[in-house]
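Standup notes
- DV: blocked on the single-chain target, sequence here:
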Amino acid sequence: MIYQKIASELDVKTHQVEAACKLLDEGSTVPFIARYRKEITGALDDGQLRQLQQRLVYLRELEVRKAHVIESINEQGQLTSFLRSAITHVQSKSELEDIYQPYKSKRRTKAQIAQEAGLKKLLEEIITQPHANLIKLSQRYINIEKDFPDAEACLEGANAILADQLVSQPELLKRFRENLWQHGLLNVSVVKKRATEGEKFRDYFEYSEKLKTIPSHRMLAILRGVNEGILKADLDIESETNFEDQLARSLSLPQNDWFNQVVRKTWKSRLRPKLVKELITKQREQAEEEAIRVFSRNLKELLLAAPAGAKCTLGLDPGLRTGVKVAVVDATSKLVDHCTIFPHPPKKQWDQAINTLFKLSSKHNVELISIGNGTGSRETDKLVSELLQKHSDIRAQKLIISEAGASVYSASELAAEEFPNLDVTIRGAVSIARRLQDPLAELVKIEPKAIGVGQYQHDVNQSQLASSLDAVIEDCVNAVGVDLNSASEALLNHISGLNNTLARNIVAYRDENGPFQNRNQLKKVARLGPKAFEQSAAFLRINSGKQILDSSGVHPEAYKLVESIAKKNNRSLEQLIGNSNFLNSLTVSDYTNEQFGEYTVQDILQELDKPGRDPRPEFKTAKLLEGIETLADLREGMQLEGTVTNVTNFGAFVDIGVHQDGLVHISQLADRFVKDPHDIVSNGQIVKVRVTEVDLQRKRIALTMRSQDRSVTAQPKNKREKNTNTGMSAAFKRATSLK
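- DV (later): unblocked, structure below
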């Protein structure tokens, strides 16, 4: 049942889901299954496998909960065949809880006490005799011992029983939810006494939008305002009397003042608040899921950004009063030198700073200069430009890069372990240098939430966010693979089949025995058993080792297959690897067998063509305009080049070198209507932009990527955000209000 449901949701075959679930249950990881078990799963990719894994957990939890509910109701002696069937076929946890609600063990309610006093019979009499004198009917049920001393108390008891019956109708609640979800309007207003404190929420002081369609970033902004006590939100429901009528008809209640009053009160005080809360929660959860998807996609793009490569790099962590921290790392990312220079006020040791950088660059043959984009970055960039102008023999390339998270790493336990005697500020410069060489290897050391590529990341479910980001890191690290003889413990920890302990043991074995000569040596690492070897070996590369295939993504289990391909064609492995013309001439089906099908053989031939190929793009950088260093230097109409630093549902933020990222609103990303900004831009992409608006007071920059002379004809995204330059300002302000 579970396998069939997941297969339907993913639009794949049931046997594919069943096979994947079996592998997951056996301890295989998603990267391993996606790469090396294609025959078994029918080539499900890592994205499908992640969805499958998530749904599998949810549906299994749902089945466990169903069993508990059935057992609980059965113990109460109230389980009918109809009820069992309804529980068995329920599709979500919320629907299951609706069914279970009347049977939950809870404190004795007023309705239960009334039933114990026999007042259910009174309710039945009132229903069958709607025009009778209710006081007279109730007098026969007075029971002082059970706290019903008069007719009014008895009527209140009957009222409580009826109210419980009204709210305990799963099918009716489902219809109400669907109706409200389709038509409910979210009304937002300011809490008057807090208006002066909530400037950042001003765009929502008087705001209405259909709940179902409200964008995730807007919903999270509103909810943040509600949580901070600045805003209040409610659902505007048309024709509430219609819901009251449906409620009365659901139990075939007579029409009289007493019944109308009970129904109206039950709707207003119990059902309406419950449904509104549930639907706002539903939209919040969807908004959180979307925010997490955006964060995950941005993180993936950042982790898979182009590496500058194994080159000696000088890292600069800019600062004004505290100085610029300097670190030099060699081609293997090892720290070889460091210091602090003070070129900026108040010390103004400009010439001395240039001289220091010249000596370091010459001594270590520096090829790259990495400048963090924090405070003082453009001033420091100017310093390096002068250095390169004065000393043309230094052939280093300078770049300004994002330093987000560098300070988090520098103060971390990992950094302290790596550099126990190094000042925290210098550790940040080391990180800035290394992340230019290899963004993936360095960024895995930093808490993902500190990297700054998410929207409203502190407003979403933190465990769900952490789980999603961990999965992204695992997929990225394994997609690239790592050098077994140089990878850090932090990087190894994300390899398929490994954990903190095994990563630490690998590094310890390497330190004690020297570089690994072949993958089989992994079996000698403490606690690294057959399963861990199977899952991890192919993602761990050994360059210049004894076995040439160890530098590729070919799994050790397939080495004999590769050797047989070489032998069959009278070639050595060396003659096989990299020989594109020959490899392309081979017929895949000639080399398949019971263990290795066409998917695997095709992957092996592709890997042999370009062994250990890095899937990341070629390294490129934006050319920042000289003299444009602060917001005050910007002018409307300026054409600039920049780097995309963050992509959200409402647009993309671009670093143009003025310490404040500018926003290209979704309406300004292209000359056509754009539904998803990710269709146009990605993190780390170099883009050309034009300045359309600068707000010095609020430190905001509006940019466009649209053609300057093209007339605006695109369709509006919605009634509030027209895809035009004139409508852009309001959308820009709302989108950036809580960034």
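- Follow-up: The domain at 631-736 is CATH 2.40.50.140 (OB fold (Dihydrolipoamide Acetyltransferase, E2P)).
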